[in-house]
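Budget justification note: compute hours in this period were largely spent on complex prediction jobs such as the one shown. Inputs:
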Amino acid sequence: MIKIVKRDEPSRAIFFLTPVLAIFLTLVAGGLIFYILGFKPFEALKFFFIVPIADKYGFSELLLKATPLCLIAIGLSFCFKSNNWNIGAEGQLTFGAIVSGGVALLFYEQEGFYILPIVILAGAIGGMLYASIPAILKTYFNTNEILVSLMLVYVSKLILDYLVVGPWSNPEGFNFPETRQFSDSARLPLLFEGLRIHAGIFLALAAVVISWFIFYKTYLGFQMKVSGFSLKTAKYAGYKGKKMIILVFLISGACAGLAGVGEITGPIGQLHREVSPDYGFTAIIVAFLGRLHPVGIIFASLVVAITYLGAETAQIFMQIPKYTGQVFQGMILFFLLASDYLLFFKFKFIGSKK
Amino acid sequence: MHKLFIRSFVSSLVFLFTLTVAAVAKDVKAAFVYIGPTGDHGWTYQHDVGRKAVEAAGFKTTYVEGVPESADAERVLRQLANSGHDVIFTTSFGYMNPTNKVAKEFPNVKFEHATGYKREHPNVATYAARFYEGRAILGTIAGSMTKSNVIGYVASFPIPEVIRGINSFTLAAQKVNPNIKTKIVWAFTWYDPGKEAEAAKALIDQGADIIAQHTDSTAIVQIAEKAGVYAFGQASDMDKFAPKAVLTSVENNWGPYYVERVKAVANGTWNQKDTWHGIGDGMVVISDLDSAIPSDVRSKVKKLQADLASGKVHAFTGPIYDQKGNLMVAEGKTADDGMLAGMMTYVKGVEGDIPK
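Corresponding output:
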């Protein structure tokens, strides 16, 4: 007979094993769903997870897709580690894109090495400004950061709508909701001829290294960890809570803003209404799947990125509805949260007594 | 006997030959890229109806739905071009730049972009429908049937396509009822049932007893059904979603164009062009008229429909004045396509300002 027993303390091994378990369960459940829908499960999974990255181009697209997810998730891990629930990365991304896009448009038809750094910096600042709103409201007015940051997502999208429909729309573009194309000097350089992967990936990798250093080698990282475990302890230890809250929000906003810069100055090259297919929300899944650990987040961003690519391939070659990609993302998060149960409880096998 | 045998032998040879030619020609594969789900009963749904017509004509098709206009569009296009598709239809305005970009890399693949204006490479064609002709029909019905003389109009984005529709609708309504006013609510979305429903409610609260829409969901006709006012369906026949409210719908009928263009690819006669078809070419279709429409209005509608189709009547025939009373189109003249393509002013009788 099996008995469920509470663990004395959360298991360290299980902590890093559950994401793997969650992915495995997602594959099994996904295969089952394909089977019920009338597709061959193994063939479908092959088209979902292997075919899209089987060649150089596909692999570069995977990295392109994972870059913003990784960058945002790294930023979010600063917030989540310290008990700050920033749900509005999508808004910070959008606002970062707006500010950097605005700067890029200022340099329309100008060339110069100094343009790109200014555009990138503008994006980071835009994201930080936007993240500072929920941070300041939380620290000084005790508002709930989940609600404020989430609602601001919709505000940012409306601001973007307004700008691309109205004042920033391309004067030669028949009033369609899009800006002019940015000049080459405002575009992130491509890494390889013919592939879309761009220098933004270095921003993501830099964020990974810096965050690892901060989390595990600095006093700030330690403070964040303590605040994450217990706000009361943090207070008792005399940490300046408000300062830290604002700081983690700013870091998070900067990362999301940079992700926005990467999209508009990388593959898109202009501002329009849809700069991000909800990367800011998907990155929340990535952050948790990566266990808020920088290296974990790299892997998690690759896994989640492939659900996007796989959904396209599966529809093109097997006519599987593309929205199954979102089902996979949902399942990963669901199984991860469910298997977290194993962190605190364990199964004990007890020999049957006669 | 002998002759007959030879004749039948030859004819069967000819038959076999044409069969093989047909089989080779029909080896063309078409792909469709959709902005929304095929089940939206609006824009994407109708494109998919068109795709099925291509299938029925004997061609293989592939589609990808829900492709955002973000960086993802380019990858989907490249993948389709790379996997043996000969012609790719990109059915949303936001695919314009990715379509032209990928077209450059795949000169042997034909690209057809809906509602755009960029044809940067010889293998890119564009197509759109003269929906404003359909809206002239709706305006005629609305002007004849309103009692409050206030007609509501849920608009999506302030672009010429939408402004043109509002104007065409209003002009036609004024022709049968000079006292009408068209009230606009901008939803700033193409498809968002929640926002569209809110917009419709706001218009009904302002006294509108007929609601027209330039957004894609069925939310508006359903709100109209509940409120007991009339409405018009958009893109597909929405009658079944609101049988009492829906007077008729303007249907986007892409099938004939899609079949023609895929056949052209198969025959090697495909050429770059900009297509703008209306009621006459069957790209814009008016659904069955509801029984609530009185017979005199019916006959007016049928006549206008025939005249628009034959070109005898143009939806924008002068004199047309803007809101301030300035002459836009002189008496006896009609608006040319250039003016229609860039139309960004309301005609007299439309209330409010175009959002800037």
